[in-house]
Amino acid sequence: MFRYILYVLSPAVVVLTLIGTSSGPPEKGSLADIDKLDQDWAEYNGGPDRNHYSPLTQIDTGNVSQLKVAWEYASGGADTVRNTTQLQCNPIVINGVLYGVSAGSQAFALEAATGRELWKTNLTDDTFSMTSRGVTHWTDGKASRIFFGYGSYLYALDARTGKPIATFGNGGKINLRDGLERPGADDYVISNTPGVIYKDLIIMGTRVNESAAALPGDIRAYNVRTGRVVWAFRTVPRPGEYGYDTWPKDGYKNVGAANNWMGMAIDRKRGIVYAPTGSAAFDFYGGNRPGSNLFANCLLALDAGTGKRLWHFQTVHHDIWDRDIPAPPNLFTVVHGGKKIDAVSVLSKQGFLFVFDRVTGKPLFPIEERAFPASDIPGEQAWPTQPIPLKPAPFTRQSFTEKDLSPYITGNEREEIVAEIRKAKTGQPFIPLGWERTIFFPGTDGGPQWGGAAVDENSILYVPAKENPVYSAIKDAPKQQGTTASVTGKKLYEANCGACHGATREGSHDGTYPSLLNLSVRSNEPAVHQLLAKGRGMMPAFTQLKEAERKAIVDFLFGKESAVATEDRPARTTVPYSHTGYNRWYDSKGYPISQPPWGTLTAINMHTGDHLWQVPLGEYPELTAQGVPPTGTDNYGGAVVTRGGLLFIAASRDEQIRAIDRRTGKTLWQAPLPAAGYATPSTYSVNGKQYVVIACGGGKLKTRSGDKYVAFALP
After folding, report:
1. Cβ atoms within 10 A of the Cβ of 403, count?
2. pTM
3. What is the pLDDT of residue 509?
4. CA 372, 373, 377 angle in degrees (round to 5)?
5. Mean pLDDT for the stretch of residues 356-378
6. How far apart are CA 206 and CA 260, in angstroms?
7. pLDDT tens for residues 649-668?
8. If pLDDT is split at 50, 70 and 90, which confidence band does 539 have?
9. N or C: which end of the chain has fewer CB within 10 A?
């Protein structure tokens, strides 16, 4: 496995190529001495294989209880009043320097041993802020660059100074929006997940809107020196391209997304990049895009030098559930059928794990096409079957009915919830949204999240997930009102904001989408207008709206009435239906209505596909104090797995970081964080000392926002 790390480590670590794939104990004079060498965390999720793995053994199961805080760094930019900012960054470490992104979307460099700031950007482009998951490093042995997504721009920074490289693009940046235009689309595009390096290319995906006006999700490779586009792969094919016949005739003109927002993995030895994609937009209605819709919801294997498609597999046909592949793939080697096979796997929001031969795309375990219900929404043609892997078994439960109701809900509340469940469409995956309440389980953002899975040197995969019912329904899109061809601020709010913040502005129960009631108490009109124009964190900028439309929404939020003439509105792609929002279902005490566990960590043997163990991840302290066993919680972020026998993971809403015995799932150590660590830790060594660092940003699930990076080490 270490051959994937060789592209970024020093020549002294060549020995790892020979011993890194061993599943036995460390040998004297080789891996046993690994902690005497400085070990980088040189790429997003640890390496090009995205396995979150480190060979470090200094911190192990015997001494992990002695961990202490080594340093803290306040990165800046946290909104601790409204608790709306987040940190999702998995920082990288190169030659003793840590590179990350602040809560205010600025890149920075620190001394990795002390947390002392070396440089920090102060970018002020007329664009929107965002939540970044990290940066990408490139070097030719002389020059050293950090690539960093900021709003719609990709910056190339000098790794030593943080200054933009003037010869890259336009004064150190390129606009990722260039080349993505299509009729009727808005102009929202950002890059919040690091790209991958192949020779002198940086290969990038993007995050775009999820409305019908979304831009297309082309995957593109840029020259690292000049910023010039070298190749592009169109995920919504055009006439004459493979997959064109899986869309309507003018699909490429009328439909967007199918984008790589979750990141990629790369096999540099073979020159293959593995790029997952998300759903076509709009997420929950596809009447305007009949067909299976390649290359939405696909794992794509592309020639890294040319962008040519080598093979693909579609994990959801004609997605109308927003069932994106949620995280980068994992690359590892298994023994299957008596042969060593280099494999690639991807997670599914539904809680599935798909595993393929990395070269041929052949599934390593059987995948069955199963029939699922048709849609009752006019114009919708749900695909009749979906692919279901028979092994490994799902790592989340697959259905929710009244029998699965939490035992902690009693009395009248229980009766009321049971009555609502009985009226809803529920009980299996892939039920198309209808006019009535339709329940997603696991929830709309899935069981696994963007943090993805970790894989150790024995090809054991560890995946965090959550299991919370979420409901929604289809509704008619707001119509224009009045006789003077105008649309009101209220209707604009309903069309653009109501799905998240609620039709009555009450927000979501768990605080993911804050209430907008009594907004004047905690904000003002200019601030909200700027938020709509530029976005913040995970909220996109509403660039599809003209300034007058944004003003009408602000007027409505602050109790005024105004309207916008329809002839002044931009001609955007639309569909006849909307949805009633992402309604996470909690009881009156704030707990999910399903039976625990509400969050889990699962270990899976990828040689056999068998589950080894599953444990709850996270707890509600007040329930634990009552003698309730840990229930698990909502979680965001991934784990780090080490040769020292440990998994390090924060992710849970209880604002803790944990060290877990990777053999058993038992928690060996935990410590409080200044804010929840909704990110993936990094581990590295400098001057022979191993550190574990986590970004503590909070800002989701009604937890406080923060801006700190906290590093732990042995005394």
Report:
1. 10
2. 0.90
3. 60
4. 140
5. 98
6. 6
7. 999 999 999 999 999 999 99
8. low
9. C
The reported pLDDT for the residue numbered 127 is 57
Query: Which of 18-32, 215-229, 409-423, 473-487 comes out lowest in average pLDDT?
Result: 18-32
Distance CA 703, CA 713 (A): 26
Q: Is the pLDDT of residue 444 over 80?
A: yes
Residue 273 CB neighbour total at 10 angstroms: 29
Q: Which residue has the tokens 């795309």?
A: 361
Beta strand residue intervals within 91-206, DSSP E? 92-94, 97-101, 107-111, 117-120, 136-139, 144-150, 153-158, 173-175, 189-190, 196-198, 201-204
Question: What is the pairing mode between strands 639-642 and 53-54?
Answer: parallel
Q: Are 72 and 62 in contact (CB under 8 A)?
A: no
- Three-state SS for 344? strand
Residue 483 makes CB contacts below 8 A (sequence gap 6+) with: none
Question: Residue 267 phi/psi, 5° resolution?
Answer: -100, 95
Tokens representing 223 are: 């020259």
pLDDT for 627 beyond 50 = yes
- For the chain, helix, strand, coil in percent to 5 are 15, 30, 55
For the stretch 147-198, pLDDT in tens is 999 999 999 999 999 999 999 999 999 999 999 999 999 999 999 999 999 9
Query: Which comes out higher in pLDDT, residue 18 or 560?
Result: 560
Residue type, 685: S
Confidence band, pLDDT 50/70/90 cuts, at residue 512: low
Distance CA 98, CA 710 (A): 12
CA of residue 231 relative to chain centroid, distance: 25
- How far, in Å, CA of 379 to CA of 36, rounded? 64
Which residue intervals of 383-488 are DSSP H helices?
411-423
Structure tokens belonging to residue 149? 């997504």
**Is the predicted pLDDT of residue 213 greater than 70, yes or no?**
yes
Q: Among all chains, which residue has been given the structure tokens 């469409």? A: 425
Please report the pLDDT score of residue 597 as a whole number: 98
Q: How far apart are CA 503 and CA 581, in angstroms?
A: 9
CA geometry: angle at 438 spanning 445 and 280, to 5°? 50
CA distances from 371 to 297, 317, 383, 385 (A): 18, 12, 9, 4
Q: What is the pLDDT of residue 510?
A: 61
What is the residue whose two structure tokens read 């005394």? 715
Residue with tokens 């574990």: 692
What are the start-end ranges of the H helices in 567-617? none
Q: Let me know: does 451 contact 634? Beta carbons within 8 Å.
A: no
What pLDDT score was predicted for residue 482? Answer: 44
- Residue identified by tokens 């070298």 is 230
> What are the DSSP calls for 478-519, one per residue?
PPPBTTTTEEEHHHHHHHHTHHHH-TTS---TTSSS---TTG
- Rounded CA gap, 509 and 588, in Å? 10
- How high does pLDDT run on average in the chain? 90
Q: Given this model, what pLDDT does residue 516 score?
A: 81
- CA proximity to 130, closest of 111, 150, 113: 150
d(CA 235, CA 39): 37
Pairing of β 563-565 and β 219-223: unpaired
Give the span between the Cα atoms of 392 and 387, in whole angstroms: 13
